[in-house]
């Protein structure tokens, strides 16, 4: 019984769980400071992003821990998709859009968060690949054993046809 979960992914998720509140507090405080100098559409975008990231991050971290520790492919795939398609593009937008008037402290925490996300995307991909391949091999072996149990033994079949003749 091989362990399929990834220790490095779990460590990254563990540290991310503690880093996220720190990131959130700094980002909200910096947003509060620079809110008056932002244009109206950037105000709307940043508030929307903060709400979206907050909700998504809680779900993402839960799915990542559940999928990795319990070796559940759907949960880990959901974690990987949320990371790749939502969180990473949003953090890169916050990191590289100069119209947001990025503060140096804000840039520093966004870089750390982006590193967490990039590492988790790569590590989760390889963990998912290993899990899927192993589970597919287990399924094939189970099906093979099931088919062998249903098939009659070769000696019994030949005796049955010889006695009928």
From TrEMBL:
Where does it reside? Cell projection, Cilium membrane
List the Pfam families. Answer: Transmemb_17
Top-level taxon in the UniProt lineage = Eukaryota
Q: Does the keyword Membrane apply?
A: yes
Question: What is the organism of origin for this protein?
Answer: Menura novaehollandiae (superb lyrebird)
Q: This chain belongs to which protein, by name? A: TMM17 protein
What is one term from the GO cellular component aspect held by the record? ciliary transition zone
According to the record, the segments passing through the membrane are 13-32, 44-64, 76-96, 108-128
* Keyword Acetylation carried by entry: no
Its function, per the record, reads: Transmembrane component of the tectonic-like complex, a complex localized at the transition zone of primary cilia and acting as a barrier that prevents diffusion of transmembrane proteins between the cilia and plasma membranes. Required for ciliogenesis and sonic hedgehog/SHH signaling.
The record's annotation in InterPro entries points to: Uncharacterised_TM-17
> Which family does this protein fall into?
Belongs to the TMEM17 family.
The protein's topology relative to the membrane is: Multi-pass membrane protein
Q: Subunit structure, briefly?
A: Part of the tectonic-like complex (also named B9 complex).
Which GO BP annotation is one of this protein's? Answer: non-motile cilium assembly
Keywords assigned: Cell membrane, Cell projection, Cilium, Cilium biogenesis/degradation, Membrane, Transmembrane, Transmembrane helix
């Amino acid at each position: 019984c091989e362990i399929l979960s990834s220790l490095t992914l779990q460590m990254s998720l563990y540290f991310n769980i503690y880093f996220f509140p720190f990131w959130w507090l700094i980002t909200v405080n910096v947003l509060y400071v620079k809110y008056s100098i932002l244009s109206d559409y950037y105000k709307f975008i940043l508030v929307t992003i903060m709400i979206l990231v907050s909700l998504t991050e809680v779900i993402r971290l839960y799915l990542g821990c559940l999928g990795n520790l319990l070796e559940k492919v759907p949960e880990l795939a959901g974690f990987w998709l949320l990371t790749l398609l939502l969180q990473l593009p949003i953090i890169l937008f916050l990191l590289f859009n100069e119209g947001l008037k990025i503060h140096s402290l804000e840039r520093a925490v966004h870089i750390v968060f982006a590193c967490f996300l990039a590492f988790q995307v790569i590590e989760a991909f390889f963990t998912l690949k290993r899990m899927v391949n192993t589970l597919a091999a287990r399924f094939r072996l189970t099906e093979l054993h099931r088919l062998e149990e249903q098939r009659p033994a070769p000696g019994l079949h030949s005796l049955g046809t010889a006695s009928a003749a």
